[in-house]
Request: fold
Amino acid sequence: MNFSSITIKDIASALNLSVSTVSKALRDSYEISEKTKALVNEYAKEHNYRPNPIAQSLKQGRSKSIGIIVSTIENQFFSQVINGIESVAYEAGFNVIITQTHESYDLEVKNVGHLTHRSIDGLLISLSTETADLDHLRSLHRQGLPIVFFDRVAHDFETHKVIADNFKGGYDATRHLLDSGYRRIAHITSPPNISITKERYAGYQKALEDAGMAVHPDYVKHCAHGGRDIGEVENALNELLALDEKPDAIFTTSDRITTTTLYLLNKRQLKIPQEMALIGYTNTTLADVLNPSLSSVYQPGFEMGQKATQKLLEIILAKRPIYDFETMVLPTQLFTRSSTAPKN
Amino acid sequence: MNFSSITIKDIASALNLSVSTVSKALRDSYEISEKTKALVNEYAKEHNYRPNPIAQSLKQGRSKSIGIIVSTIENQFFSQVINGIESVAYEAGFNVIITQTHESYDLEVKNVGHLTHRSIDGLLISLSTETADLDHLRSLHRQGLPIVFFDRVAHDFETHKVIADNFKGGYDATRHLLDSGYRRIAHITSPPNISITKERYAGYQKALEDAGMAVHPDYVKHCAHGGRDIGEVENALNELLALDEKPDAIFTTSDRITTTTLYLLNKRQLKIPQEMALIGYTNTTLADVLNPSLSSVYQPGFEMGQKATQKLLEIILAKRPIYDFETMVLPTQLFTRSSTAPKN
DNA sequence: TTGAAAGCGCTACCAG
DNA sequence: CTGGTAGCGCTTTCAA
Reply:
């Protein structure tokens, strides 16, 4: 059932015109006289005519909708990205279909199928932590589906990408800990296969190196699902606290890992930052009112969504195939709060 | 462009059958021989045939998608609701289109237009704080669009509704403050026109009444946009703190108002709960690690999404019109934490 | 400047 | 049991 309005046919018969004339008049074709255009447009407005997008899609093979794949919208970073995406997409007359992987490769594949199946005109994707193989995207891309990666990207995939400056984020966070007097800096992070993990790790490593230190392998812990399950964070933390030389600070990546670590430290009644400093990636608006207020690396989620969508629309609306792809790197912001107050 | 697969026509010509035969075979019609069915299905599976949903929609007038309208997905309560919705919708082969009002009536009207325009089969909606008039929904509903309200509902609208037990939520929170020794209990809440505001207020009022007290009119403050803008919460708080007889506790509704109030109290360095206790509605998973840990009323968001979707699908899939509507009331949970520790 | 007709992929009616 | 055909609402040749 279509609840929206009358059809082009209704207008045609009401005005004693043919459907093709009406169609052309509505699309402001040069073939149609101004008089007829005026007549048609007036009638259309009066009767609140809206073209049926389903019919348009079928005819034109374009659906004016773009698909989004993220791990979960419950993560504030991603909901901010989505808001950015929507702001640009709606402006351009596109609507969006949001799907979630919950960090599962299988769900990602399923969502990709589901979306292409719904005839999307383009895809914005942040890979799941489990994703190693990209065949489900490559064949579509080869067939011409415009794809833009954001956040968690595949570097060996030729298309536009929009990411935060993860290296600098990792560097800044680690450097801040060093500057505040911490020396035994642990790192709890996502699986090493995804791009953001590597990039942030590289920043962490470089900051240590610049301070004349090396990464202590026991200090780096990976959570297979990016903190989706509290258990994986708990294990990581337990292992760190069981070390002979316990860390005096932790740098975490990802909202979930960060807030879960904070929760667990509080639960164990470890004093932050006296017994353990904490800085982590998070986009929660609550960083200021956490206990203690949380030093963090903030990513420009909204802007990332906007940029990614702009690049995607560029491809979708391009007259000819694009081979010249770009990787945009957006700056992150470091917020220093009580959880990393200077040592002693 | 359709990236998904071959068409029914391809199958027909490959197998030397007619499109109608293939169509029927795929739909397992009784008219078709088992042999042909097997042949067609095998070929279809082999070539990864998937029916084009756009064409199906156009033909059948159903799109197998449902529209969602919420104020903002950045609110954890709503993202949990959406997860619940998706879990049920996908199971039934429906996909969802999420839109946000950002508490604006105009955007709500626009989104309703946008969604019906995309030929949704049903609508799940939580009203914006600004919405007073329901004409944009009534006419659609009269035309047969299935609508289910959740969270913020319109009581004078005949359809299914799924809400939390807002009265009890308000009662429990207030009662808990009273039991903890607080007596001057203020209430910062959303505009009085939306359902949840009234219901929670009624609970607040009843709890006071049961304790032999009355609502102090100066203690009740409304935020026009449900806390969307920090200024409106700040004003409310300023007014409360300027009273001769300052409140000793605040009961807030809505995630945004709650967390903003916490932020502002911290910023003013008011000791919580000694100088001001705080309890509020929130679904954030961070309540435990806030400063101080925050007593809260938690709503079953995921479940609410599931139930609402089940009811919506009931209407959509019903053979005959439904006139017997139901309002489901789900229990809330009270979590008591440090922000309402017993007085003195 | 206007209109007739084909066709996007699918379903459904009716004939054989 | 199978197939031809019409038609969902729209766009787009091609003729008039």
User: Anything to note?
Assistant: The domain at 166-299+334-340 of chain A is CATH 3.40.50.2300 (Rossmann fold). The radius of gyration of chain A is 25 Å. Chain A has twelve helices and twelve strands. Residues 17-21, 24, 31-33, 36, 55, 57-61 of chain A lie near DNA strand C (CB under 10 Å from a C1').
